[in-house]
Amino acid sequence: xxxxxxxxxxxxxxxxxxxxxxxxxxxxxxxxxxxxxxxxxxxxxxxxxxxxxxxxxxxxxxxxxxxxxxxxxxxxxxxxxxxxxxxxxxxxxxxxxxxxxxxxxxxxxxxxxxxxxxxxxxxxxxxxxxxxxxxxxxxxxxxxxxxxxxxxxxxxxxxxxxxxxxxxxxxxxxxxxxxxxxxxxxxxxxxxxxxxxxxxxxxxxxxxxxxxxxxxxxxxx
Amino acid sequence: xxxxxxxxxxxxxxxxxxxxxxxxxxxxxxxxxxxxxxxxxxxxxxxxxxxxxxxxxxxxxxxxxxxxxxxxxxxxxxxxxxxxxxxxxxxxxxxxxxxxxxxxxxxxxxxxxxxxxxxxxxxxxxxxxxxxxxxxxxxxxxxxxxxxxxxxxxxxxxxxxxxxxxxxxxxxxxxxxxxxxxxxxxxxxxxxxxxxxxxxxxxxxxxxxxxxxxxxxxxxx
Lengths: 221, 221
Hints:
2 copies of one chain form a homodimer. Chain A is α/β, with parallel strands linked by helices.
């Protein structure tokens, strides 16, 4: 089983310090929610983000959405060889049931995330998504892997195909991909760092490269 | 150069026959546009879609968005080895400049498409996206490829890696992927049909498999 962790994702509710900002208040009103119940979204809350520490990278649920659409529909997941976790900048972990069929529409995805942050589990009966307070280190320990790799611009340069071979040779590897637009991990990442390309790639592209090359080295393809 | 065509995409303006439907009128009003200027979107215009032929598959710009985000950010494109085209159900072709940095936010993407359908080219100065009336057959002829492959559930089953090798051995292959949620091509597709998996896959997953396996067989990786 390959364990994919989208780490330090910029996915969070609007922080308390900006719930009264007009950009947030108006957005929440339009969506018929309370300001503290909506997911921070950089495109919509741009002016409010300027008031926040790390504001230039925060509010990027779109990255999580695209990463999940690629991972959950992948052949590796269809074959039952993948587990996906979303770890956030506030040290929450979302456990994603591999059967989850995520909304393709971004606004519906935001609604689902809002419901998840409110109820800690969605949908109530099936619990396809479950949110817990947990650090990246605690998650990795819990998975108890036989290899942990952090995808990182400054890591050891390995061709994607060769990296797929390494993963396919392990029983229970963890691959950590940053769920943020730029900059570095906020969490400590004391594991082997791997780079698959000479310059930086979007998180979802790294995921595609990892999953496709992992699959191609497994007997199920 | 690999030429990727997302064909018979369910990307169109709201058809005339439903511009007066309340679901469309209300949506357009919210977005401060005229009903005939907005892109048909299945999640928002669901009740109006029921009045349309093929309504159960139409209004899926989200598929085009995800496919383009994966293709344009891919290593193949970063290396200058890819050209991407979006062909629509109404026989329009969008030529996508490989330098295009597409909006990650879905609502902004919809705005960009609306502008493209209105002005036929966006942005006016750079012309990163350009729309022309053209059939799939005419587009393929224009590209003048040395191989044309249609990704199709009922095609010849080939492992993704082996298919990547075939593509890498050609100078100018065209790969056609259906930009619709289910069903078959509307256009005639009188070319070799290839299936890379035993059951159907989302369009963007097929694109990921094709691009990653193509890259891995080229000298640039």
